[in-house]
Amino acid sequence: MGMLFKFLFVVLILGGLGLVGFAYFGDLTPEQTDVTTPVQLNAN
Predict the structure, then answer these.
(1) N or C: which end of the chain has fewer CB within 10 A?
(2) Burial 5-44, CB ≥16 within 10 A → b, else e
């Protein structure tokens, strides 16, 4: 039973390190697009 907890602990640590590494080194920049919206001024 102790080996199971040790294995789960190691998997959680490696998963956390992988998540932190991807957050720092992964390409997470959003794609930029131009947005144009027509605006009517003084419309009755």
Answers:
(1) C
(2) eeeeeeeeeeeeeeeeeeeeeeeeeeeeeeeeeeeeeeee
